Queue: 2 jobs
Job 1
Amino acid sequence: MPEASRVILHVDLDAFYVSAETREHPELKGLPVVVGADPEGGRARGVVLACSYEARKFGLRSGMPISTAYRLCPQARYLPPDWSLYERVSTEVMSTLRRFADKFEQASIDEAFLDVSTSAKDESSGKKVALEVKRAVRESDGLTCSIGVAPNKSAAKIASDRNKPDGLTVVPFSDVEGFLGPLPVSVIPGIGSKTQAFLKDKGIESVSELQKVDGKQLLNWFGKNGVWLWGVIHGQENIEVRQQETKSLSVERTFKEDQEDFRAVRREAADAASELARRVKSSGFHYRVGGIKIRFRGFETHTREKTLTSRTDSEEALKEVVDGLLDEFESELRPVRLVGVRVADLQRVSSGPSRLDDWLGT
């Protein structure tokens, strides 16, 4: 274990493309769903981009020819990919995740690393934060995720895949090496089929068997990557979560019960705007774009924004923007599940706190 132990979460959204489709189209829930090409009666040449867990029970998997998928499960619902939807949902979820992190690194459209070392000091408190993250993603974004908790990034990533979907796996911080030992070498990020075959030829199929290989031998086999590999398999990889530049800030409020009184929605939005303005000021930012997010029952979500003539940190200006943008939705007469306020096009104009965790909250 690294001398200066961190608490790292790897968050992996479950069957993301399919989950995003199901959130928008609840009638798909519980069905075998495939995102990919139109099967054309089994004649298409495309591949499966993603499939639901129900579809996987029929032997379907990502990367499979769509014709094979159709032969195995012709009754599945086959959907063309909706990239704009996936980008929008990913942005929403990443905004939720950022609220928990001292340092945040988005690894892909559906994965992120969170360094939560300020709010968690060990595996027990790390688990508590992970449970809060799972609840927030479920309640705010209508999705499930699987999370690995570990003192480093590689172990957290490996752990997040151990109990899917909607899983939570906590690596023993005092024995990362022992946790990894029984697992197949294929769990190590970067070890693909060619490396697996290479290691198998040498009688190495489990991580514990690879742990017995001398570091110099790994260096001989894999060059400088052997140094990284040695650290990973012995639980000593210590690469920091790469803090990404803050491009926007947001505050969201999920109602305990869907809210039918739009006056209450406006009040909650105004309160969220006040909280967000305090964060903007305390961090030394000015914003130029103000926006809202509103989610109705059934997870139908809309976003709107307005660009100001100049940057400001004014709370009153933000409240005015928010109130004006909400006007469009007042006549909807539908229960509201969530309302959020956002600022973007940020510029630091004064010396704020040295770390984002001085003002990012949950």
Note: The first strand starts at residue 8 and ends at 13.
Job 2
Amino acid sequence: MKSRFLSFLLACVALALSGCGYNQFQSLDEQTKSAWAEVLNQYQRRADLVPNIVATVKGEAQFEQDTLTKVVEARAKATSMQVTPETLNNPEAFKKFQAAQGELSGALSRLMVVSENYPNLKANQGFQDLRVQLEGTENRITVARNRYIKTVQDYNILARSFPNNLTAMIFSYNVKPSFTVENEAEISKPPAVSFEKK
């Protein structure tokens, strides 16, 4: 009788340990870090394009200086933020980073819209090439962000599901922040930037 109880107890302990989710947390945590690194990589790619775009636009003597200044300032703000793996676990830092990247997106969109008013700039092959690179980079950012959102979703589901939530509580696996839309009404509007050559 004692051996049956002991066997049953050992089976329960083995089952509990195999179902605690610790290894899943490790795997999903690494996946979120990897997906986040790709998001940062694409944001850096965009930031690296900005000086070339600004330099090309400055060649257009009549171009709106205020628009260029906003792009330069937004890039400086976005690239000056210290982003570490801990940013993924700090909703406030994550929100600030996201806001800075959003400002840069907005400034670049405004620049592209305003550039449509300058025929010399529209005819500049270098500028057109940069526009195409920017469009490609924005698409890559979207793909990278979507992958990150998916991995965070998988991680957060694990962290909230029983009995894994007990493991999460014991080992401090907190729910991770994901990308959000500041103004959900904005996403229903068509984009203001057209990258088509005219």
Note: Confidence is low (pLDDT under 50) at residues 183-198.
